[in-house]
Amino acid sequence: MNVPVFIDIPVPQQTLELRSFLKSLGAEISEENAESGLLTDLKNIIEASKFCWNLNNESEIEMVFNGIISLLLVVPVQDAESVVTLFCEKVGKLPEGDQKRVALRIRMLSNLFYGLEEEASLRYVVLCSMVRLAGQNDLLSMVPVDMEKIKRWISLWEISSAKVQMLYRILHESLTACNMRDIATKVMIELLGTYTEENASQARDDAHKCIVTCLADPNTFLMDHLLSLKPVKFLEGELIHDLLTIFVSGKLTQYQQFYKNHTDFINSLGPSHEENIRKMRLLTFMQMCENRKEMDFSVIQEEMQLEKDQVEEFVIDVLKTKAVKARIDQIQEKVIVSSTTFRTFSKHHWQIIRQHLSAWQNNLSRLEINFENVSLIQSQVQQQ
User: Fold this and answer.
1) Distances (CA, A) of 87 to 46, 76, 101
2) Most buried by CB count within 10 Å: which residue of 129, 243, 254, 344?
3) What single-letter DSSP state applies at residue 227?
4) CA 235, CA 359: separation in Å to the nearest integer?
5) How far is it, in rounded angstroms, from Cα 316 to Cα 309?
6) What pTM value is reported for the model?
7) Sorting pLDDT into bands at 50, 70 and 90, what band is 352?
8) DSSP secondary structure letters along 182-200
9) Do the beta carbons of residue 15 and residue 45 sit within 8 Å?
10) How many other CB atoms are there within 10 angstroms of residue 142's CB atom?
11) Burial 25-44, CB ≥16 within 10 A → b, else e
């Protein structure tokens, strides 16, 4: 069966063709255009579009939906919210038990998204629908998730903070579902940054999720910046805040005591106790490296609570994270530390950086003077 191309014909004829075609598929829709105008026509057509998914040929389905999209783009932006929202509901939500043609649905939403003007706030509705559907079906590669790009769009759309927060929540949930924890963490931190002193108490669940996401991410080691976020500060005194504080600046033994006292709480969070132990060992080792240039295997074994034959493997795992730069002296059974990432960054660390930069500046100045002296000597030799 040949499906007509609706896009290149006048709008009234296009809606008429769509109505007729959908009726031929079994939709209960009149073959005549509604007297009340294009918006009513579009709502009727979108409601009946579910019959298109029964077609065997995806190109036919795509052609029909592209026809609907072309009509949506004709509607003035100020009048289009209801029909765009309806389109996203019908295309972006799978019928229960139906996992077919998800990629096609995402592609149709994408066609609408990029068909709208970049500054059109209706893009927000489409993006939310796209991200949610892609996240539920592990197809986030088909949708934009770059935070810089999304933040630029948000600034163009001028949407409310509540809508920004909703978009970030959907994005975070989808990224987490697709195991993209590093980006999910960044999104959640952006979300918490949208709250102020006045509404920080409303972000309780978001702050809790943010902490759990950071703890669960095997590549996130620096978390002291979370403590300065207003919604996280609001959790002070609660177990989740106490746990975060341990991961920010505590040692392995402190976590073990916390787990002993609050086993059920730890088990309810998601990250396993074993994963937490692994991360706390790494964080404790990073802290040990801050003030030591050498460490015997025996010290590492005792602090990390490892068997003797596990020490070298543990250090190798740490070095793979690049959080610590060091070399292993197997003969003397020690680790020689070159540098480490600081777990917390305080005023003291800024002072150290300032000292290093001042020393570097002085060295450059002396080097410049030496070059000038060499140049002067060469000039004097040439004049003789």
Assistant:
1) 6, 16, 16
2) 129
3) G
4) 42
5) 13
6) 0.74
7) low
8) HHHHHHHHHHHTT--TTTG
9) yes
10) 15
11) bebebeeebbeeebeebbbb
Nearest 5°: the CA angle 291, 297, 298 is 100
Tokens standing for residue 189: 């931190």
Quote the pLDDT of residue 100. Answer: 79
The Cα–Cα gap between 291 and 66 comes to 63
Which residues fall within 8 angstroms of residue 41, CB to CB, at 6 or more apart?
Answer: 15, 19, 33, 34, 71
Which residues does 132 contact at the CB level (< 8 Å), separation at least 6? 92, 170, 173, 174
- Give the amino acid at 305: Q
Q: Are 252 and 287 in contact (CB under 8 A)?
A: no
Three-state SS for 366?
helix
Out of 19-23, 253-257, 342-346, which region has the weakest mean confidence (pLDDT)? 342-346
Annotate 246-269 with DSSP letters as a single string: HHHH--HHHHHHHHHH-HHHHHHH
Question: Residue 44 corresponds to which tokens in the numbers above?
Answer: 């009727």
The C-alpha angle 159, 103, 23, rounded to 5 degrees, equals 90
> What value does the CA radius of gyration of the chain take, rounded to a whole number of Å?
30
* pLDDT value at 99 more than 60: yes
Residues 26, 51: contact at Cβ < 8 Å? Answer: yes
- For the chain, where are the alpha helices, taking DSSP H only? 11-24, 38-48, 58-72, 81-92, 102-115, 123-136, 147-157, 161-177, 181-192, 204-216, 230-233, 239-249, 252-261, 263-269, 273-289, 297-304, 311-321, 347-383
Please classify residue 350 by burial: count the beta carbons closer than 10 Å to its beta carbon, then call 0-12 exposed, 13-18 middle and 19+ buried.
exposed
Residue by residue, DSSP assigns 41-53 as HHHHHHHHGGGGG
Which single residue is written with the structure tokens 């106490």? 242
AA identity, residue 300? I
Of 27, 5, 34, the residue nearest 17 (C-alpha):
5
Taking the C-alpha atoms of residue 113 and residue 126, their distance in angstroms, rounded to an integer, is 6
**Residue whose tokens read 């007509």:** 4
